[in-house]
Amino acid sequence: MNGIGIMQGRLSPAGARPQSFPRQWQAEFIYARAIGFDHIEWLLTADELESNPLWTAPQDVLRSVEQSGVAVRTLCADCFIQRGHDEALLARVLARAPAIGVETVIVPWLEGNAADLHETRRRLRSLHQLSGTSPVRIAIESDLPAGDLRTSIEQCASSIGVCYDTGNAAAAGHDISADLHLLGTRVLAVHIKDRNRGGPAVPLGQGTADFAGIADALVAIGYRGPLTLETPHTTDPLHAARTQRGFLVQQLATVTHS
Fold it and tell me: Contact, 245 vs 205, CB < 8 A?
């Protein structure tokens, strides 16, 4: 089974933004282990960029990893949504990420950092050069159609791919299974959430994302990477995380045993 993890901050009370670095980040490792998560996706936000433990205390992060057994496999560089495309900062993140065990850095080209097809191809050319200087993979999270992403990334090194967000795809009305088949081995990370067409995130199973179909497609393309819950905040984050993880495990089990 793929490792199931959760986005940093989803095991804590909601912050000022949907993506907020948690004050009690060490405790989240303990909560994650108790619930059964395999990994936590590290979060790098613009508002607390320089004080993030990625820079200030990587040894403390590794200590939490060792004590809990919960890995940090992916890093979501949410900071780029507010800061825009910044190649110098990305190079810095790629150089530092291995210090806490990160395998894949997710770069959102969304909202304030969105890119059309022309800009996406321009940025990818520069990322192709950056990727050769780091052992860390780069996964682009974009609202572009899967076909455009696939043709754009084909000319890049295999260390550059896509972070596929099931909730964003559902909100846009995409055929998620078809997207995953089209992107194939270029899917390097998957954010698991659910949404209705044009709506906000909802608990898994309450939106239009077909998780049985998603599970089938992930098996079909041979995806063995992390699945990371990016589900909505609630007043009881630990109960919600346990429930959402249970839902996903059930969906994956139906494919495994079919």
Answer: no
Please determine, for residue 133, whether its predicted confidence score (pLDDT) is greater than 70.
Answer: yes
Global pTM value: 0.95
Q: What DSSP state is assigned to residue 184?
A: G
CA distances from 50 to 12, 76, 154 (A): 21, 15, 34
| Domain chopping of the chain, boundaries | 4-256
In the numeric block, the tokens 């009305």 are attached to: 173
**In the structure, what pLDDT confidence band is assigned to residue 256 with cuts at 50, 70 and 90?**
low
> Between 3.30.1490.20, 3.30.450.20, 3.20.20.150, 3.40.50.12780, what CATH number should domain 4-256 receive?
3.20.20.150
Q: Is the predicted pLDDT of residue 112 greater than 70, yes or no?
A: yes
Residues with Cβ within 8 Å of 43's Cβ and at least 6 positions away in sequence, in order, are 7, 8, 9, 19, 20, 21, 75, 76, 78
Any long-range contacts for 14-21 (C-beta under 8 Å, 24+ apart)?
14/233, 14/237, 16/47, 17/45, 17/47, 18/233, 19/43, 19/45, 19/76, 19/78, 20/45, 21/45, 21/48, 21/52
pLDDT at 58: 98
pLDDT tens for 30-70 read 999 999 999 999 999 999 999 999 999 999 999 999 999 99
Residue type present at position 24: Q
